[in-house]
Fold:
Amino acid sequence: MKNFYASFGVDDAVAARCEAVAEGLRDRFEAIDAVAEYNQARVLRAMQRCRVDAGCFAGSTGYGYDDIGRDTLERVYAEVFHTEAALVRPQLVCGTHALAVALGANLLPGDELLSPVGKPYDTLEEVIGIRPSPCSLAEYGVSYRQVDLLPGGGFDYEGIRAAITPRTKLVTIQRSKGYALRPTLSVERIGELIAFCKSIKPDLLCMVDNCYGEFVEASEPSDAGADMVVGSLIKNPGGGLAPIGGYICGTKQCVGRCAYRLSAPGLGQEVGASLDVKTSLYQGFFLAPVTVSGALKGAVFAAKLYEGLGFRVLPDGSESRHDIIQAIELGSAERLVAFCEGIQSAAPVDSYVKPVPAPMPGYDSPVIMAAGAFVQGSSIELSADGPLRPPYSVFFQGGLTWFHAKTGIVMSLQKLWEKGLITL
Ligand SMILES: *Cc1c(COP(=O)(O)O)cnc(C)c1O
Structure:
């Protein structure tokens, strides 16, 4: 490995520092593997119970009537998430779309949406209409209220109680921190929040934005009372193989409405050809528990490494994990750019390009994104990004294997080192 590092241009001081950190992580990695083993068994059992067979992989075209493979895959998801129903479709083009469908399908004019965990992910601002946008929920007469987390990261229970009115119809809870510097919520904490909201208004629908959280723990928010859990297939549950798609798992009532919103009233879940993507969706879901474990190891390694260099990292190197994202407050635009250059230079695809900050649809400040992925934009593959605004935090995630995640992080440190932006 020493020679390999040298051929990647890694200085001895950088390599030595990284190896020392990796050595100290054996116990953490064992715990991560134990969760992966359990989740692997859950997925395997679901596939067996749903009698997945070769016929499920056959493509479908046109309307997609009687697409047994599509319907079986949805039963597999429902089985793993312990929900009555699931919508798992390539026609859900990304996570934002899946969330927009789930919200739009279950909120009617006059209803109010509540986020009791602060500002939602950037792209949802336009979906909701926090930033005015054509076709937002606000345009359709759905109002929005938000209760921020308390300074220590706790739930503002009194604020939430006061914010729930007879109009409040749906509560949206984002599990992962997104581009915010707040703790990610554990399934247990999400369960407490859902129970509290429902104790005030029992008919509230609770939706969890589960992006980046799938398979990190041994249970999912649907085990903790969520009516819908929503996510992207080019993140955790696609296992790196899904080329497109999103999922919504939940109650029959909620998921049924989502299907009508996605296709058309009256058509619902019965239409939607899956073309030739099904094998990748099945195989990716099968591999996802282990893929996620590799990404988690990378995140823990990055946290330990950068924490040791004096940077503020979130989560820190020792705390328990509830998503695969690692935030590192780099404190300057130069460091943020250098970090991303390092990740990019370690990619199997597009390793020769240099990432630069640019405006992105859905985001309100320039964003730098480093990724050299087999599936474009996939962030279960090794990727790093961050908005160019103080405190210049990089959000690092993914890695189809732990070894690749490690290489990327080593390269990030190398770039910071060779530009004189850190001392070792
Ligand atoms: C990625 C992400 C989304 C949006 O997903 P896209 O697939 O990028 O549209 C929403 N919420 C959270 C927390 C995310 O991480």
